[in-house]
């Protein structure tokens, strides 16, 4: 019997298109097998009871009583396993009951039967009972889900077993069995590691991304699960921006294909895990899922993009397994920041990260014409040998887009090639006429035929083109400034002077040059510029007579002052100063080299001695 699409059934069979259907059929077969075995055993038991043997009295004399059962210690892992099995059995039983109910009872048919046989009052009651049944069923399903979640969480642990022991570091070169990564150092022996990870669902990063899916990003439905990855980066200790700041540290986990951030919050957690090293392979037990949105958007308008992991308790839930052998970092230097790329790579297979490998491949392919996409593998297309582009006029006739006025025409259409329509197969200029045009693209052809058409290729990457123009403009301005500063014909002190200041500075310089003061210094402080000024001044002497007279008068006055100074001024020390110096020199010699207590003879001062050196 086919199902009526208007029927409302308890469970839609199209929603259960997962592996649960196979499990249900398997359970059904097992139940049938158990029923068959039950009937067989009952039949055999009935036959046994029909043929009862007489009991032996001797066997009843020695009655043996079994010993009391010994109390066995039950670990937390066994309890967790038992609870998990019970939860799975309850879930399967509820699902099978729901399917059997949906297949046996059709609520819509029962309701229509009541409507056919009873009055309107009974139909109202039937509708109300149908709603109550649906409501009770939804409440029951929700209750079962809550119970299953509580059962799963009751078996959860927050730390690994046997992690408090200290082990000797072991140098190895092997493939780690749980993470499937090569290690060079092992921190925990294999037997202790297997004991710690017993009854824990291990998820690598690719499996974790498959389990935690958008849009809800729910936690994996396991009592105890752990993430296995390599620590590729570790940040410094930071504080949150909340009202009560809290310490946190971020670790970046990777498996060379995917990466995920792990945040550790709290003072105790930061102190415990701060010494984790980059390159260690770790197992993180039962972390929290922390979905994140792009910054700057509200929760209503911005959807969740991805997720991170979070640890906010004080238990030891990170297990260090070993040191990765193949972890490295991309050595390529970034063009703009002049820093290393630093992306995690697998040294056994790669030398750079995926981005720089693709960039290098594009650069290499652009140098080869056979691989460069900018060059077509053939001659340019001629319009005369390809379908022409036309624009339809408002009347019945059609005109070419070249000859149609701008305000006419409604839409574009194509026609066969010009040679096909005129029955010509030649390729000379006579056959093509004005149609022998070459176009680089279809947009260029449309722009040629239509004056109002705007080529979208011109607007492609417009921001980058505008930025290039601004950079070139700034570069030209900087070149002009540097040229002015480094020019040999201009003085740096005269860059910001106006015309009047420049004229006054020029007159002062020429006056100092022509008076002869600079010539008497013994060197040229202008580094050769004074010679050009002197030559220019000598060539222009005939134009300004009054100025030459003033300069000559000043030059004569300066020369007269210098001559008077040379004749009248004597800068040598006086005779009295020379006598005191000689007397002081004798006293110093007597105190240093003469006998003690010997008086210093006062000798007459020799005025002819011109030695003015002072010995100390």
UniProtKB/TrEMBL annotation:
<keyword id="KW-0479">Metal-binding</keyword>
<dbReference type="GO" id="GO:0003688">
    <property type="term" value="F:DNA replication origin binding"/>
</dbReference>
<dbReference type="InterPro" id="IPR040184">
    <property type="entry name" value="Mcm10"/>
</dbReference>
<dbReference type="GO" id="GO:1902969">
    <property type="term" value="P:mitotic DNA replication"/>
</dbReference>
<feature type="region of interest" description="Disordered">
    <location>
        <begin position="1"/>
        <end position="26"/>
    </location>
</feature>
<dbReference type="InterPro" id="IPR015408">
    <property type="entry name" value="Znf_Mcm10/DnaG"/>
</dbReference>
<keyword id="KW-0863">Zinc-finger</keyword>
<feature type="domain" description="MCM10 OB-fold">
    <location>
        <begin position="178"/>
        <end position="305"/>
    </location>
</feature>
<dbReference type="Pfam" id="PF22379">
    <property type="entry name" value="OB_MCM10"/>
</dbReference>
<dbReference type="InterPro" id="IPR055065">
    <property type="entry name" value="OB_MCM10"/>
</dbReference>
<protein>
    <submittedName>
        <fullName>Uncharacterized protein</fullName>
    </submittedName>
</protein>
<dbReference type="GO" id="GO:0000727">
    <property type="term" value="P:double-strand break repair via break-induced replication"/>
</dbReference>
<keyword id="KW-0235">DNA replication</keyword>
<keyword id="KW-0862">Zinc</keyword>
<dbReference type="GO" id="GO:0003697">
    <property type="term" value="F:single-stranded DNA binding"/>
</dbReference>
<comment type="similarity">
    <text>Belongs to the MCM10 family.</text>
</comment>
<keyword id="KW-0539">Nucleus</keyword>
<feature type="compositionally biased region" description="Basic and acidic residues">
    <location>
        <begin position="404"/>
        <end position="413"/>
    </location>
</feature>
<dbReference type="GO" id="GO:0043596">
    <property type="term" value="C:nuclear replication fork"/>
</dbReference>
<dbReference type="GO" id="GO:0006270">
    <property type="term" value="P:DNA replication initiation"/>
</dbReference>
<feature type="compositionally biased region" description="Acidic residues">
    <location>
        <begin position="606"/>
        <end position="616"/>
    </location>
</feature>
<feature type="compositionally biased region" description="Polar residues">
    <location>
        <begin position="416"/>
        <end position="429"/>
    </location>
</feature>
<feature type="region of interest" description="Disordered">
    <location>
        <begin position="396"/>
        <end position="429"/>
    </location>
</feature>
<dbReference type="GO" id="GO:0000781">
    <property type="term" value="C:chromosome, telomeric region"/>
</dbReference>
<dbReference type="Pfam" id="PF09329">
    <property type="entry name" value="zf-primase"/>
</dbReference>
<feature type="domain" description="Zinc finger Mcm10/DnaG-type">
    <location>
        <begin position="322"/>
        <end position="368"/>
    </location>
</feature>
<dbReference type="InterPro" id="IPR012340">
    <property type="entry name" value="NA-bd_OB-fold"/>
</dbReference>
<feature type="region of interest" description="Disordered">
    <location>
        <begin position="575"/>
        <end position="616"/>
    </location>
</feature>
<dbReference type="GO" id="GO:0030466">
    <property type="term" value="P:silent mating-type cassette heterochromatin formation"/>
</dbReference>
<dbReference type="GO" id="GO:0031509">
    <property type="term" value="P:subtelomeric heterochromatin formation"/>
</dbReference>
<dbReference type="GO" id="GO:0006271">
    <property type="term" value="P:DNA strand elongation involved in DNA replication"/>
</dbReference>
<dbReference type="GO" id="GO:0008270">
    <property type="term" value="F:zinc ion binding"/>
</dbReference>
């Amino acid at each position: 019997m086919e199902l009526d699409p208007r029927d409302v059934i308890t469970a839609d069979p199209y929603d259960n298109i997962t592996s649960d259907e196979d499990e249900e059929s398997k359970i059904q077969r097992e139940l049938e097998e158990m029923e068959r075995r039950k009937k067989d055993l009952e039949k055999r038991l009935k036959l046994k009871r029909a043929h009862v043997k007489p009991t032996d009295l001797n066997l009843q004399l020695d009655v043996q009583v079994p010993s009391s059962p010994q109390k066995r210690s039950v670990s937390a892992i066994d309890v967790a396993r038992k609870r998990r099995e019970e939860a799975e059995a309850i879930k399967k039983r509820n699902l099978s009951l729901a399917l059997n109910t949906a297949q046996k009872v059709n609520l819509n048919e029962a309701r229509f039967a009541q409507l056919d046989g009873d009055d309107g009052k009974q139909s109202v009651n039937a509708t109300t009972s149908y709603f109550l049944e649906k409501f009770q069923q939804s409440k029951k399903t929700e209750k079962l889900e809550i119970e299953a979640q509580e059962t799963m969480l009751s078996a959860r642990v927050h730390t690994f077993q046997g992690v408090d022991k200290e082990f000797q570091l072991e140098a190895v070169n092997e493939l780690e069995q749980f993470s499937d990564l090569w290690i060079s150092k092992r921190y925990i022996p294999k037997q202790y590691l297997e004991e710690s990870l017993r009854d824990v669902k291990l998820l690598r990063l690719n499996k974790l991304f498959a389990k935690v899916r958008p849009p809800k990003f729910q936690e994996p439905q396991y009592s105890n699960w752990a993430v296995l990855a390599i620590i590729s980066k570790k940040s410094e200790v930071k504080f949150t921006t909340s009202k009560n700041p809290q310490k946190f540290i971020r670790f970046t986990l990777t498996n060379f294909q995917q990466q995920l951030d792990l945040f550790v919050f709290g003072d105790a957690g930061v102190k415990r895990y701060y010494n984790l090293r980059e390159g260690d392979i770790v197992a993180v037990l039962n972390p929290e899922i922390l979905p994140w949105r792009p910054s700057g958007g509200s929760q209503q308008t911005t959807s969740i993009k991805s997720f991170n992991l979070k640890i906010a308790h004080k238990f030891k839930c990170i297990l260090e397994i070993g040191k990765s052998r193949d972890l490295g970092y991309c050595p390529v230097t970034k063009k703009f920041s002049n820093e290393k790329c630093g992306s995690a790579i697998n040294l056994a297979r790669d030398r750079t990260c995926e981005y720089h490998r693709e960039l290098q491949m594009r650069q290499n392919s652009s140098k080869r014409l056979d691989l460069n996409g900018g060059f077509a593998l053939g001659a340019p297309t001629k319009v005369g040998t390809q379908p022409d582009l036309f624009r339809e006029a408002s009347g019945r006739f059609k005109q070419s887009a070249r000859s149609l006025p701008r305000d006419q025409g409604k839409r574009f259409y194509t026609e066969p090639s010009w040679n096909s329509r005129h029955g010509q197969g030649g390729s000379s200029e006579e056959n093509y006429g004005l149609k022998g045009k070459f176009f680089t693209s279809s947009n260029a052809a449309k722009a040629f035929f239509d004056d109002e058409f705007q080529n979208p290729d011109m607007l492609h990457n417009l921001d980058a083109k505008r930025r290039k123009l601004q950079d070139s403009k700034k570069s030209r301005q900087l070149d002009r400034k540097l040229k002015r500063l480094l020019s040999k014909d201009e003085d740096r002190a005269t860059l910001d002077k106006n015309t009047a200041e420049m004229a006054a500075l020029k007159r002062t310089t020429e006056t100092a040059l022509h008076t002869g003061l600079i010539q008497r210094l013994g060197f040229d402080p202008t580094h050769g510029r004074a010679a050009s000024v002197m030559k220019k001044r000598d060539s222009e002497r005939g134009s300004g007579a009054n100025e030459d007279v003033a300069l000559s008068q000043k030059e004569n006055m300066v020369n007269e002052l210098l001559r008077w100074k040379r004749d009248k001024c004597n800068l040598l020390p006086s005779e009295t100063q020379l006598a005191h110096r000689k007397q002081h020199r004798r006293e110093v010699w007597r105190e240093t080299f003469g006998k003690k207590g010997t008086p210093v003879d006062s000798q007459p001062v020799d005025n002819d001695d011109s030695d003015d050196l002072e010995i100390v």
